[in-house]
Amino acid sequence: MCYKFPLFRIQIFLINEFVPQEIMESMKEIIHNKKWGKFNCFGIYAWLILGITSCYHKVQEEKNSVNKEIVQQQEKIRSFFPFPEIPAMLTQPEERKAYLIAHYWDNFNFADTALVNNRNITEQGIVDFLAILADGTLAERQQVECIDNFCGGLEQQAYAQKIFLQMMEDYLYNPNSPYYNEGLYVLFLKRMLESKYVDDLKKSSLLFTLQLINQNSPGQRAMNFIYYLPDGSRHTLYQTRVNKNRLLLVFYDPECPSCHDVMMEMLHDKLLQQEVDAGNLTVLAIYTEGNLDVWKTTISELPKEWIVGTDREEIKQRCLYDLKAMPSLYLLDGDKKVILKDVSYRKICSEILY
């Protein structure tokens, strides 16, 4: 309850707050004993004003110092993610971890745009959260519950929703991310698609991404497509002969720096070349862009043992494969079933070479 004070009384309150006790006592003695000989009215007022002003500035300096310390302390607190306090009764690592991940976002204020914009806090919080979710110790049911708690906080704040949607995409959906995990991203997408706070336009985009992810998953037969060899002959993925039940499917663009780096790594990999020469592996490299002149002038840079073709942009137009980042590498078996989907070349090597 906030009470209002008459103007005169609040002035007396301020004087008593800022003027030292000895000055107040002297004032009372002067006024009570009517010692006007030493102090005329002007002198009393001047003395009072000077005393109050001096003391006021001293008190203000002290208050400013305290306020500065408070602000510094608040900034220090805000420089760390607001982790939940784990009850002392939980002593086992498994119990403490379960509590931490279940209550991870309890103290995070999604309505605080300054906090959401503080990448040192927010991004580090996301990274730690995803690391726990993906460490292999949580059942899918627990992952779903944790993601539900997370989404329950961010979905109601439009700005936080925008920032975290992008952050989750960057960390879970980008093959170049160390936290790339389509499984977790699917759980996140499904939860956001259920939200009543996400608009229809955004849901349409999320649904498209979800459908794209669900294509060409490990264990499924890869989507068929048409490709053309440099001589113009027409072929399909399903018609392509596969040596020893292994097909390395590479979608690339010679003008893409990342593609160039990966291709150079593959070209200089003697173990890969040995597998191809021995007939243990088929490499199918497909150019997916529209500049056929660029493609034709770079074909000679690739090994003649590889099958090199262009889809004439059919894959992108029909959304047959998720080509969000290039190059995109798949490992298929002889029936064109997916073994590894959109993984790094090192991951491919660990499966077929070592």
Automatic annotation (TrEMBL):
Pfam families named in the record: DUF5106
All copies of domain DUF5106, residue ranges: 68-216
This chain belongs to the protein called DUF5106 domain-containing protein
- What InterPro entries does the annotation carry? DUF5106, Thioredoxin-like_sf
